[in-house]
Amino acid sequence: MKRQIFNPYLPSCEYIPDGEPHVFGDRIYIYGSHDRFGGAGFCLNDYICYSADVRDLSEWRYEGVIYRKTQDPRNQNVPEDAPEQELRHGVRPKRPEDLNPRGIHAMWAPDVVKGKDGRYYLYYCLDFISSIAVAVCGSPAGSFEYLGLVRYEDGTVLGERDGDMVQFDPGAFIDDDGMIYLYSGNSPRRPEDDDRMHRSQVMKLADDMLTVREGPYMLLPSVNESEGTGFEGHEFFEASSIRHIGNRYYFVYSSVNSHELCYCTSDRPDGNYRYGGTLVDIGNVFLGGKTEEETDNPLGNTHGSIENIDGKWYVFYHRQTDRTQFSRQGCAERIFIEEDGSIRQAEVTSCGMNGGPLAGEGKYPAYICCGLTSAKGAVMSYPGTMRLDYPFLTQDEYDLEPEDIRMQQDRYEPVQYITNLLDGSKAVYKYFNLEGPSVIAVEIRASRYRDYDELGPEAFGNAEGLIEISCENGGRIIGSIPVSGGKEWSQSSWHVDLPQGIYPLILTFRGTGRLDIRSFSLYREEQARPQNRFDDYMKDKAECYAWNSACNCGKGE
Q1: Which pLDDT score, from 0 to 100, does residue 530 have?
Q2: Residue 243: Cβ within 10 Å count
């Protein structure tokens, strides 16, 4: 029996934003940047890759490190007087490893394309350096080797010629006729920030995958050029990505709103694009007329693309965690392309690529929430904005590597959890195939707390009250679970008159103090209470892959 899959689709302590999904052969590969949990900057880790069989998106395989930042010559032989790393968004490093060493540049959002020679080409930028590097490998998830910088025919590096635009977030595409296109650039989010050096660009490359054959040319209008184009309010900001679907080219990008992915279409890959709409927004902004003030989640940038996996289209994007912009996680939703080529905005859900609602029984990690707000709503995911006034997703451990035993145990005992639930805070889960009256058990404790600008050790508080259960936003309360959180994780449960059918599950904390939630379970009263599958794993070292669904393997029953 296949396991269920939910958002985020990788381990809860894995942080791969900017995900570019590509199907090569019978596997889907995710190429993205790599955030470091607790880091004080974007994309501090090396590039790694995960893949899954296109017929089973519940089993993602870690492929290993595919490219290290120190393989780039610009990160070698760093001078002793290299400047210190610049701090951003009010996040201060707590440990030396929370920033790259002096003079070392981070690798930002990449893309990969299969070349005409059968090799795989990785395109990327080093943080604020305005040039595009290329690495190459004989397999989609092997060890890539540095190839060079994209350059003009005279050898001048793209981005260094007088009048060149800033290079940023490259996207690569080879059309059916063999023409190679490279997309790049970012644009100002506000008219007053326009320096005329940041624009959406497209160029053609020679067969060596390095040499600019034509261009670069301007592609999409900026915020100062959009009047009358149809892009108004959703102009290009960054994150270029392209797909060829039927007789249309779909250009996917992050808009000036930053928290949404948009698309536009054309009958050719290098121009004449018409705005299509929002593909997904991490706070469901614009869906049904929702505004930023009504966001379902902490806001921040997002980046991704669309891909056809075994005949179904999905949009990949990332969400924000830990009150920063530096611990982002990949998510995905099903999308549908209409006969006229249009795509309706996808709703952010917990069930993501599951192929339907989650089962109405079993144990679920709390981190799969698709909505997380305080009584005041949600704001931008910055420490100085959120402080301790809003709930957020976090973990106790520092950044983990896939080889770490704690990450391998994540399936059984989630690393990530919800913290800082105050009175009126709400966690939303969409969707479940509920089976009627059930018992709901929640795993809770009191939050540890220290504001982002406070020094000294964190301290545990206390939490007393109820977790109210409802199945519609603003709907009637159908059950309440008494909770009393202390320093250690404990479980509270109560009978709840759940309906039958497909519904969201909404958990609202009413009480005093600050509450953490790590998991919740649903089971019928006539069934045995689900045990912790992690305990079973530790007892007999046998894997039970159905901890988050109805288990029929005989372990942990």
Answers
A1: 47
A2: 16
User: What is the per-residue burial (b if ≥16 Cβ within 10 Å, else e) of 528-541?
Assistant: eebebbbebbeeee
pLDDT band at 458 (very low <50, low <70, confident <90, very high): low
- C-alpha–C-alpha distance, residues 408 and 455, integer Å: 32
Cα within 13 Å of Cα(65), Cβ side: 10
Residues labelled catalytic: 18, 238
Tell whether the model's pLDDT for residue 450 goes beyond 70. Answer: no
**CB contact at 8 A, 8 and 415:** no
Rounded Cα distance between 238 and 187, Å, is: 7
Look at the block and give the residue holding tokens 């090569």: 24
What is the number of other CB atoms lying within 10 angstroms of the CB of residue 187? 27
CA atoms within 13 A on the CB side of 468: 17
* CATH 2.60.120.260, the chain: domain bounds: 359-540
Residue pLDDT, tens place only, 343-379: 999 999 999 999 999 999 999 999 999 999 999 999 9
* Domain ranges in the chain with CATH number 2.115.10.20: 20-354
* 167-205 per-position pLDDT tens digit: 999 999 999 999 999 999 999 999 998 888 999 999 999
**Contact assessment for residue 122 and residue 136, using Cβ atoms and an 8 Å cutoff:** yes
Residue 402's nearest CA partner among 29, 162, 40, 64 is: 64
Q: In terms of pTM, does the model score above 0.85?
A: yes
CATH annotation of 359-540 = 2.60.120.260
The number of C-alpha atoms within 13 Å of 491 and in the hemisphere containing its C-beta is: 14
Report DSSP letters for 498-547, one per residue. Answer: --EEEEEEEEEEEEEE-EEEEEEEEE-TTSPPPP-HHHHHHHH----TTT
Cα distance between residue 185 and residue 238, in whole Å: 7
Top-level class of domain 20-354 = mainly beta
Residue 193's SS3 state is: helix
From 209, 201, 158, 153, select the one nearest 179 (Cα to Cα).
Answer: 209
> Which tokens in the block code for residue 213?
């054959």
